[in-house]
Amino acid sequence: MAYDFNANEVFDMAIQIEQNGTKFYKNAAEGVAKPEEKELLLKLAEMEVDHENTFAEMKRSLSEDEKAKTVFDPENETVLYLKALADTRVFFQKTINTGDMKEILKEAIVAEKDSIVFYLGMKDLVPEGKGKNRLDAIIKEEMGHIRLLSKELMAIK
User: Fold this and answer.
1) Nearest-angstrom CA–CA distance, 125 and 113
2) Cβ within 8 Å of residue 23, ≥6 positions away
3) What domains are defined for the chain?
4) Binning pLDDT at 50, 70 and 90, where does residue 51 land?
5) Residue 1 has pLDDT above 50, yes or no
6) Fewer beta carbons below 10 Å: N end or C end of the chain?
7) Cα 73 to Cα 71: distance, rounded to the nearest angstrom
8) The model's pTM
């Protein structure tokens, strides 16, 4: 089955990625000893929740045409495919030393970069008129995370 996606489906995936990011940061916070590191990671988890809410709001604002199915999919395979992509490509379960803040931040930066690459690729799968231009807002949100994470990493060095 060839897949074209609409913005609604991509926002579903963006929401799942943000949920995965929240779990990543909360799990990392459990492994650090310093209170300030724990506080930063929990703040990052909260930012992921904020992004999830932003994406949910953006999804609610889509037009009916931007939500329209692009393929015949009676068994909802598209949703399962997108969930699998979100769960295995960005903020997926990794084995990292959660006691090392540098390693946590480096992995988080990689995950945020992966999410940007992922969304850029998804733009090619969303036809014009189905919300393709809205993906730029997702990418902009993720770029803000990279700036914050990079700043925190440089402060540690």
Assistant:
1) 19
2) 91
3) 7-156 (1.20.1260.10)
4) confident
5) no
6) C
7) 6
8) 0.76
Q: Provide the pLDDT for residue 120.
A: 86
Own/partner long-range contacts of 96-104 (Cβ < 8 Å, ≥24 apart): 96/28, 97/31, 98/27, 98/28, 98/30, 98/31, 98/32, 99/31, 99/32, 99/33, 101/32, 101/34, 101/37, 101/156, 102/153, 102/156, 102/157, 104/28, 104/31, 104/32, 104/41
Residue type, 45: A
The CA angle 96-81-47, to the nearest 5 degrees, is 50
Q: What are phi and psi of 20, to 5 degrees?
A: -65, -40
Token reading at 97: 């030393």
Nearest to 148 by CA among 24, 34, 47: 47
* Positive/negative CA dihedral, 90, 48, 18, 59: negative
Which tens digits make up the pLDDT trace of 85-124?
A: 666 655 555 566 777 899 999 999 998 898 888 888 877 7
Instruction: Evaluate the CA torsion angle 39, 43, 45, 49 in order and state its sign.
Output: positive
